[in-house]
């Protein structure tokens, strides 16, 4: 059974930093491109960042580019999101997702999310 468990969320003031982590299990971690999504209160989920299987390619939502950095450690089955200079509008639940872009990946799976709150 594929499982994704996010951690590292919390409450910070504007300008602060957090590092999210996602631990994958039940599949071969390196077989999937990965993504972080977020959902702010009252809004649709939006794509934050993606990373290729071996971290050779990354993409970012324009709203977070230059502030967030996505990374992965396949040997540890972990995906990361370093978030710096956080803004109030970054508040939301952040989800770790497998992207089924190749036949080796077992499918699209979502974690339960971790809450990030940015407020003064």
Layout of helices and strands:
Elements: E1 3-7, E2 10-12, E3 18-25, E4 33-39, E5 45-51, E6 58-60, E7 68-73, E8 78-83, E9 92-99, E10 114-118
Give a verbal description of the structure.
The protein is mainly β and 120 residues long. 0% of the residues lie in helices and 48% in strands. It contains no helices and ten strands. Strands 2-10-9-4-5-6 form a six-stranded mixed beta sheet, with no helix packed on it. Strands 1-3-8-7 form a four-stranded antiparallel beta sheet, with no helix packed on it. Strand 4 and strand 5 form a beta hairpin. 30% of the residues are buried.
List the keywords.
about 0% helix, mainly beta, single chain, four-stranded antiparallel sheet, about 50% strand, six-stranded mixed sheet, about 120 residues
Tell me, briefly, the overall form: globular
Radius of gyration: 14 Å
Give the N-terminus to C-terminus distance in angstroms.
Answer: 40 Å
Spatial strand sequence of the major β-sheet: 2-10-9-4-5-6
Roughly what is the average pLDDT, rounded to an integer? Answer: 97
Derived structural class: mainly beta
Largest beta-sheet details: 6 strands, mixed
Short précis:
The chain has 120 residues and is an all-beta fold. Helix content is 0%, strand content 48%.
